[in-house]
Amino acid sequence: MESNKDMNHYDIARATGYSRTTVGQKERVLITKFMRALLEAQGLTLKSGAKPGKTAKYLITVHSTGGVLLGKTYVEQFGMEPGDKLRIAVDDDCIRLMPAPVEPVTVSDTSASTEACSVAT
């Protein structure tokens, strides 16, 4: 941190890997995670309490069409945005959703848009 005195907290967070690229190719700086890591490095751990307003019930319903809706509470909790993709992993009695890695597509790489996604379990 001492060598980065001329950088603001967003630039430092970005430089230390606390950012991700959305499906729309926008960079999102994970400033809350960065600040928590700084505090923990100084020996201070904050409680992860529920935010004011609606709280997650960790229960969803399967619709008649077979679909499920995660809901805004979960989407916000994990910093997801419209268009982000999730990987699905199925175990014997468990379904896990994980953010799918975003791979930028270049103009010269037209095969990336037609390839199927492989899911690791």
Question: Topology, pairings included?
Answer:
Blueprint: H1 9-15, E1 19-21, E2 27-29, H2 31-41, H3 72-77, E3 86-90, E4 95-99
Antiparallel strand pairs: 1-2, 3-4
Word description of this protein:
By secondary structure, the chain is an alpha+beta fold. It has one domain. 20% of the residues lie in helices and 13% in strands. It has 3 helices and 4 strands; from the N terminus they run H-E-E-H-H-E-E. It has helices at 9-15, 31-41, 72-77, and strands at 19-21, 27-29, 86-90, 95-99. The protein has a two-stranded antiparallel sheet. Strands 3-4 form a two-stranded antiparallel sheet. Strand 1 and strand 2 (27-29) form a beta hairpin. It starts with 8 loop residues before the first helix and ends in a 22-residue tail after the last strand. Residues 112-118 have low confidence and may be disordered.
| Number of separate domains | 1
Mean pLDDT: 78
Q: How many DSSP-defined strands? A: 4
Approximate helicity band? 10-25%
Low-confidence stretches: 112-118
User: What summary fits the major beta sheet?
Assistant: 2 strands, antiparallel
Q: Please tell me what the overall shape is.
A: extended
User: What is the oligomer described by this structure?
Assistant: single chain
Order of SSEs, N→C? HEEHHEE
Alpha carbon gap, first and last residue: 39 Å
User: Structural class from helices and strands?
Assistant: alpha+beta
Cα Rg:
18 Å
Supply the number of helical segments.
Answer: 3
Sheet with the most strands: spatial strand order: 1-2
% residues in beta strands: 5-15%
